[in-house]
TrEMBL record:
<dbReference type="InterPro" id="IPR013783">
    <property type="entry name" value="Ig-like_fold"/>
</dbReference>
<keyword id="KW-0472">Membrane</keyword>
<dbReference type="Pfam" id="PF07686">
    <property type="entry name" value="V-set"/>
</dbReference>
<protein>
    <recommendedName>
        <fullName>Ig-like domain-containing protein</fullName>
    </recommendedName>
</protein>
<dbReference type="InterPro" id="IPR007110">
    <property type="entry name" value="Ig-like_dom"/>
</dbReference>
<feature type="domain" description="Ig-like">
    <location>
        <begin position="1"/>
        <end position="98"/>
    </location>
</feature>
<dbReference type="InterPro" id="IPR050671">
    <property type="entry name" value="CD300_family_receptors"/>
</dbReference>
<keyword id="KW-0812">Transmembrane</keyword>
<dbReference type="InterPro" id="IPR003599">
    <property type="entry name" value="Ig_sub"/>
</dbReference>
<dbReference type="InterPro" id="IPR013106">
    <property type="entry name" value="Ig_V-set"/>
</dbReference>
<dbReference type="InterPro" id="IPR036179">
    <property type="entry name" value="Ig-like_dom_sf"/>
</dbReference>
<dbReference type="GO" id="GO:0016020">
    <property type="term" value="C:membrane"/>
</dbReference>
Length: 119
């Protein structure tokens, strides 16, 4: 395929980050590389720095055959379908963001204050 992804399903925790590697044919190295959210049709384009770009999404291109999308500070609302786009080709990716697991809280052991025995 002209465009594919290493993992078509990725998951991360709220507040964490994920990266997605998108692979493309060498003939597309000069095409726009994009990471798009299907739900609201918002796209992040490599190398563009206009104000609509989200600072928590970074795209880095190796210039040969792949680009990597890094999403940081994940929110639960980031869950959904996205796609890597190169030229007119797209490869879908499903992102699942979950709440971090809570560490079990331990109740400190208490000793009754009247356990001291006066001799």
């Amino acid at each position: 395929p002209d465009v594919s992804v290493v993992n078509s399903s990725v998951s991360g925790h709220e507040g964490g980050d994920i990266s997605v590697q998108c692979l493309y044919s060498s003939g597309y190295k000069n095409e726009d590389k994009q990471w798009c959210r299907i739900k609201d049709k918002s796209c992040y384009t490599k190398g563009r720095t206009d104000t609509s770009q989200n600072p928590s999404v970074k795209i880095s291109d190796d210039g040969r055959s792949s680009f990597t999308v890094l999403m940081t500070g994940l929110r639960l609302t980031d869950s959904g379908w996205y796609f890597c786009s190169v030229g007119e080709w797209q490869a879908p990716v499903q992102l699942t963001v979950t709440k971090p697991k809570q560490a079990p809280t331990t109740v400190p052991a208490t000793t009754p204050s009247d356990s001291k025995i006066d001799m």
